[in-house]
Amino acid sequence: MKTPEKPAMGSRKANSRFRAYVDSHLDVLFDSSSRLINSPIASIMTVFVISIALILPALLQLVGNNLSLVNEQFEESAQITLYLMDTVTDDQGLAISKDLLERDSINQTVYISKARALAEFSANSEFSATLAELGDNPLPASIVVIPSSASVQDTRAMYDELRQLVDVETAQIDLEWIQRLVAIRAVVQRTGWIFTLILGLAVLFIVGNTIRLEIENRKNEIQVIKLVGGTDSFIARPFLYTGLLLGISGALVACGLIALIQLGFASSLDNLLSLYGTNFPLRGYGMLNSLGLVVLGGCLGWIGALVSTLQHLYGLAD
Amino acid sequence: MIKFDNVSKRYADGNDALSHVSFELKNGEMAFLTGRSGAGKSTLLKLIIRMERASRGQVFVDGKNLNRLKHRQIPQHRSKIGVVFQDHQLLFDRSVFDNVALPLRVGGYSRQQASRRVRAALDKVGLLSKEKLNPSTLSGGEQQRIGIARAVVNRPGILLADEPTGNLDPLLSTEILKLFEDFNQVGVSVLVASHDLGLIARLKHRIITLDQGQLVNDVTHGGRERL
Ligand SMILES: Nc1ncnc2c1ncn2[C@@H]1O[C@H](COP(=O)(O)OP(=O)(O)OP(=O)(O)O)[C@@H](O)[C@H]1O
Ligand SMILES: [Mg+2]
């Protein structure tokens, strides 16, 4: 019995069979794209909805990343200020400061005498006149300790130890808000993951539903293809490409919108940061994340289409 | 090549379309299937391509029992058989060319690679000049010929045709049947369902007759009955 010849079988090279494979896929890709383009309103709406579903987790990720950056910045600058007893002289203070510097766990110490504290305070304060009227200098001498370790826990342990020193009246640590920041970041990141999960499912659902309608509309075509010997995978292929294209387009639109949002917020965020006396470049969403989002969108679109075809295609008659 | 062994087909609504049909079509043989409207001709052809399943008995194609055919084996089975459908089964959202190219596309050809064979098939049915048109703009007879081109484009080992000349004038009908005979000459097994008794009688081939789902007559040319 004669079986239908396959293209490029037999004596011809595997190369040309691969060529045929690629060509036939490109044909399907082209068909799927032109179908999407030929019903622009429906396609644009689907793509837009997908992009909205992708934007939210992406923005949370962006915020989370920048919070991490802020954290790093401030963990490095975490410092402990030891306010010395009034009875401690400048010489003694300097000696304590030097002693502390001997420790490996301490990176740097700065001794601030009463006089210097007053000078700095006066320079920065509107109350300098009032202070001068007081006559006696009310400000204590202090030692600023900068730990070697950037970890919050280590710094806190050191703080607990140093405040016990005999010559130390009180100690202050600037950790509270860093820890708050860490907690906020954790919440933001966790929320990001949850949103990614939920909205990822939403994308699956949106694409799946679009594909379901598409299958419904093309039932007759599917039947004819089956009659001329089309395999399930051949029949599914255009729908999978449609899902892939929808997902990728949605992600691309999302990237564009994120860029716009960044532009809109950049100047006000810079202002905010400068109020806090910090000045470091904000991390944008970037090429790598955008690429990741496009890959994610493509995967979600493809999987949504796959689930839908498995569900609706194979229910049809043989 | 095709063997029916005591085959009955009852549709879900209780219609008995075929009862106890047995016959064999040898490799390279050509036969006509005839009978009145509703006799079960289309049903018989549908059983061969596994569009329908036999309710009783067995259908063998190329030695394979179709009752045992798994879902995923059906496409391979169908790709060996070219079919001209009574209701054409064309796609009206694409060109004549793309309709005819479909069996090749399904077999892994790109549009480009399929084009030579598609044009050859369209040429055989006299539609080469209409390849870019949409089938819906063509006449009934032209649509039928698109179906014929599609059935032969893949050079199948078996050719089934359900009323392929129903919408054709006598001259075209003769030409199309001549085309089927040409295929038969090069070894293709051909089974054609038709009520056009005059046309069938002129060509000297085996004639299988159905009546109300029963095989009532089976004659080879020369009048020798097979029953
Ligand atoms: N899908 C179906 N469901 C129920 N009954 C059917 C179905 N298809 C056909 N039948 C019935 O089976 C019988 C045989 O039909 P079939 O289409 O095989 O006849 P036919 O010989 O091809 O007729 P025609 O020459 O008019 O095409 C008819 O009585 C018909 O009503
Ligand atoms: Mg019929």
Strand content of chain B: 25-35%
The spatial strand order of the largest sheet of chain B comes to 6-7-8-3-9-10
Shape of chain B: globular
How many DSSP H or I helices of chain B?
A: 7
The residue fraction in helices of chain A comes out at: over 70%
User: Judging from the principal axes of the Cα atoms, what is the shape of chain A?
Assistant: elongated
Distance between the termini of chain A: 24 Å
Structure, explained:
The complex is a heterodimer of chains A (318) and B (227). With 318 residues, chain A is α+β, with helices and mostly antiparallel strands. Chain A folds into 2 domains: 28-73 and 180-317, no CATH class; 79-174, Alpha-Beta Plaits (2-Layer Sandwich). Helices cover 71% and strands 8% of the residues of chain A. The radius of gyration of chain A is 33 Å and the shape is elongated. Chain B has 227 residues and is an alpha/beta fold. Chain B folds into 2 domains: 1-80 and 157-227, Rossmann fold, CATH 3.40.50.300; 90-155, no CATH class. Helices cover 33% and strands 26% of the residues of chain B. In chain B, the strands form 2 sheets. A 6-stranded mixed beta sheet of chain B has the order 6-7-8-3-9-10, with helices on both faces. A 4-stranded antiparallel beta sheet of chain B has the order 2-1-4-5, with helices on one face. In chain B, a hairpin with a 2-residue loop joins β9 (206-211) and β10 (214-219). Chain A binds chain B through residues 1-8, 20-21, 23-24, 26-27, 220-221, 223-232, 234, 318, and chain B through 1, 27, 49-51, 62, 71-72, 74-80, 83, 85, 89-91, 93, 102-103, 105-113, 150, 154-158, 187-188. Magnesium ion is lined by residues 41-42, 86, 162 of chain B.
